[in-house]
């Protein structure tokens, strides 16, 4: 019972992450910008690191960290939406990769000047999800629910934009704007690698076995939730870092399913 009480808030937050990221992962796969998540996560982590120059998180710097992380993400999101219309001359995947490299390099430079830079780098990668509080879970639930509602109401437009239909710049921008907000809050608790694994692994696995979008989403939700349940169990029983366990479990499950050929695949 003590273990269940300790893991209840982290596990519920992880389920919220799966709920929104499994859906967004299908959009990312459709757009063929697989690394946009990890790129924006690194940008958000950079914003959090920069905030530590001005205020410690335990001294009221949490709001500043969130503000800077969100601001950095939104600027990059707008740039990605704008540059998507120049894909013929500039590969968007190349831009995303260079954004990740720039944010990673800048994060290392910033962390090098911080008193506990190495610890901050580790937290930026795999987060500290075990220590989330119930108010943080509630905050995340409200934000993700609002963003999910916007996606549901305008789902046709968002999917048209993700499929590359012309004349939808502002829907592209809105997608990246909402995506940046989700990434900012997700990275704050779970870290870059955990967020990337939750976004891509369940969606990629589901996409191998069905063309139906609703069925893909259901499979991604189920696989992601079971993978997280297994991850938390392994982390508790074997005394392993929760973030790294989530990353290894979800990606391992995906690679194992590569051995199972979809029907009709030769």
Characterization of this structure:
With 266 residues, this protein is an all-alpha fold. It has one domain (2-257): ABC transporter involved in vitamin B12 uptake, BtuC, CATH 1.10.3470.10. Helix content is 79%, strand content 0%. The protein is built from 11 helices and no strands. α6 packs antiparallel against α8 (169-190) and α10 packs across α11.
Q: How many DSSP helices? A: 11
Which CATH architecture? Orthogonal Bundle
Spans with pLDDT under 50 lasting ≥5 residues? Answer: none
Helix proportion of residues, in percent?
over 70%
Largest sheet features: none
Estimated radius of gyration: 18 Å
The CA-CA distance between the termini, in Å, is: 48 Å
Question: What attributes does this structure have?
Answer:
266 residues; mainly alpha; ABC transporter involved in vitamin B12 uptake, BtuC; 11 helices; 79% helix; 0% strand
